[in-house]
Amino acid sequence: MRFMEAIRSALAAILTNTLRSLLTMLGIVIGVAAVIAMVAIGAGARNLVDRQIRSLGANLAIVTPGNVTQGGARLGAGAASSLTDEDATAIRREVDGVVAAAPFVQGQTQVVAGGSNWATRIYGIDLDWFDAREWDVARGRGFDPEEVRRGDIVVILGETVARNLFGEEDPIDQTVRVRNVPFRVIGIMASKGQSAFGQDQDDVIFVPLDAGRRRVIGRNYARDASVGSIFVKFDREEDIDPGIVQMTDLLRQRHRIVGDQEEDFAIRNLTEIANTATASANTLSLLLAAVAAVSLLVGGIGIMNIMLVSVTERTREIGLRLAVGARPRDILSQFLIEATTLSTIGGLIGVGLGVSIAYFVAQLAGWPSLVSTNAVLVAVGFSAMVGIFFGFYPAQRASRLDPIEALRRD
Amino acid sequence: MALIETQGLRRVYDLDAGKVVALDHVDLAIDKGDFVAVMGPSGSGKSTFMNLIGCLDRPSGGHYSLGGTSVETLDANGLAHLRNREIGFVFQQFNLLPRLDALGNVELPMIYAGMDRKHRRDRALQALARVGLAERAHHRPMQLSGGQQQRVAIARALVNNPSLLLADEPTGALDSRTATEILGLFQELNREGATIVLVTHDADVGRHARRLVRFRDGRVIEDVRQEPLQARMAEAAE
């Protein structure tokens, strides 16, 4: 019997018992829909986490000051003001694979422009910042080297700040006051969206490092050249680990830390954080996919069950087919094709449903809908396989029927 | 040369209660173009005989050849091929597939012969026309009377031009008028050259054949030629 013939006859058999066929398919439909939706949702979530973390900048390490002990009280990480501009310069010069070393200070402040004001974070940065964070101005201009060197009172606004202070107005060349110091706006940063921790990364302003240190932030950057932290960007991901070792040696040397004396700085590999987060997102999607696969399996068992019923019900038909010249393998393939057609149709309906669910969830969660072609192909292929696998036993039973017995059965 | 030839044909069933000899050394030859009624009470071995010459079963011993082919040497696929090309079955219960129309049912043997769709359709329509059901080609079995269903089954049996038409109590589920019509149809087909073996326990039915073979306890106890009772023409009856 020809293949297309067999498919047509399988479809006819499936349509004869529409309700039963639909109920049988339901398991596969739900299984496939679950696989596709779960994989897509997992991918979407992973993509979101990934994007948020990477938005910090790729191949990045951060050097932060260590803790400091004052009168027997340890003040915790970052309390020391042990890092300096020169540390950054030394890192840039001496550590292999470093593209940028961006020292910065940060603080919280109120910004006033005309009648409106806004509380935001303020960063004092140098030119390396833009490279390290892979973040540039969208309008206006960035700092020029002279401005940074002199610590001019110019400012670049984050998108959120610009919007809140100036609305529709063009902020460029306007003046904002920070702690009563008038800063001239020279640029607006490109929008960067939320960070991995849900912070609005555009709610920020940037001033030259020295301007921030001396005029605004103050704090205990008492020693003139000290900075809050240093972002260090490497050329390639492989450079980071050896780079961190080199940096540690370099900073120990520069800070005259010997033996097992406690380091007054800490270095963290931010790529690692990103990788860890991605890995956990991966585990999550694997888990979801596994759950979905189990439901596919259950669907397959449903198909086997109904095919066994169908073989029993159609024993006479099988006997008749054998009598008019069907070979056992014709009967085998007939029932196999019927089971596979059933599961594949279920699979296709499942794909439709799964894609819709994925799209809907993506819309709700506000991340890109990532239905992968692979997941669709695998799910449909897998459902066909489920049909073949679970259809085989009933089909084999049908093909092994004795024609005389089969014809005699009621 | 005989179409069917059996020599020492035996069939023994292994049952829990022991061995049961259903057919014991049957030597029989049936010529091409003959119309044979195989008769006997139930348990006489006539059904076993029919299953064997219909290639649905294999003998425990002895020899059987159909059109020169030794059947006992064939495997399941070989038997299927023979059933498909050389034998047309007609059953008491018609055995039509309920979800196919008359045409679809008649096409069935040709599907397994690997014939293409167009060809099948033409031949099936011809066969339906031959049994007088050309207008009912698209009726489902449920929409047909018993006699009509049996005609569809006969068309199905004829459609691959088999050398043997094998009918197992073909009138057993029909009223006497319709039964006569069907027997008339068989006689007509026989006059046109078809070889027919009809298995029945009904003496009235058996009288329509040209030759009568009677079984008892797995053996042939009577084998006679007779003047067949002529059934009224099927067409005339309608």
Description:
- The complex is a heterodimer of chains A (410) and B (238).
- Chain A has 410 residues and is an alpha+beta fold.
- Chain A folds into 2 domains: 3-52 and 276-408, no CATH class; 81-263, no CATH class.
- Chain A is 56% helix and 18% strand.
- In chain A, the strands form 2 sheets. Chain A has a 6-stranded mixed barrel with strand order 4-5-10-7-9-8. Chain A has a two-stranded antiparallel ribbon with strand order 2-3.
- Chain A is elongated.
- The two termini of chain A are 26 Å apart.
- The relative contact order of chain A is 0.19.
- The model of chain A has no long low-confidence stretch (mean pLDDT 85).
- Chain B has 238 residues and is α/β, with parallel strands linked by helices.
- Helix content of chain B is 34%, strand content 29%.
- Chain B has helices at 46-53, 76-86, 102-112, 117-130, 146-158, 176-191, 203-206, 234-237; strands at 2-15, 18-31, 35-39, 61-66, 69-70, 87-90, 164-168, 196-200, 211-216, 219-225.
- In chain B, the strands form 2 sheets. In chain B, strands 6-7-8-3-9-10 form a 6-stranded mixed β-sheet. A 4-stranded antiparallel β-sheet of chain B has the order 2-1-4-5, with helices on one face.
- The chains are: A alpha+beta (410), B alpha/beta (238).
- The A-B interface holds A 1-2, 5, 12-13, 16, 316-317, 319-330, 403-404, 407 and B 51, 54, 56-57, 76-77, 80-81, 83-85, 89, 91, 95, 97, 99-100, 108-109, 111-114, 117, 156, 160.
What is the topological layout?
The complex is a heterodimer of chains A (about 400) and B (about 240).
Chain A: H1 3-16, H2 18-54, E1 60-65, E2 69-70, E3 73-74, H3 85-94, E4 98-113, E5 116-125, H4 128-132, E6 137-140, H5 145-150, E7 154-157, H6 159-166, E8 175-178, E9 181-189, E10 204-208, H7 209-217, E11 229-234, H8 240-254, E12 265-269, H9 270-313, H10 315-323, H11 328-365, H12 373-399, H13 403-408
Parallel strand pairs in A: 5-10, 7-9
Antiparallel strand pairs in A: 1-11, 1-12, 2-3, 4-5, 4-8, 4-11, 6-9, 7-10, 8-9
Chain B: E1 2-15, E2 18-31, E3 35-39, H1 46-53, E4 61-66, E5 69-70, H2 76-86, E6 87-90, H3 102-112, H4 117-130, H5 146-158, E7 164-168, H6 176-191, E8 196-200, H7 203-206, E9 211-216, E10 219-225, H8 234-237
Parallel strand pairs in B: 3-8, 3-9, 6-7, 7-8
Antiparallel strand pairs in B: 1-2, 1-4, 4-5, 9-10
Helix pairs in contact in B: 3-4, 3-5, 4-5, 5-6
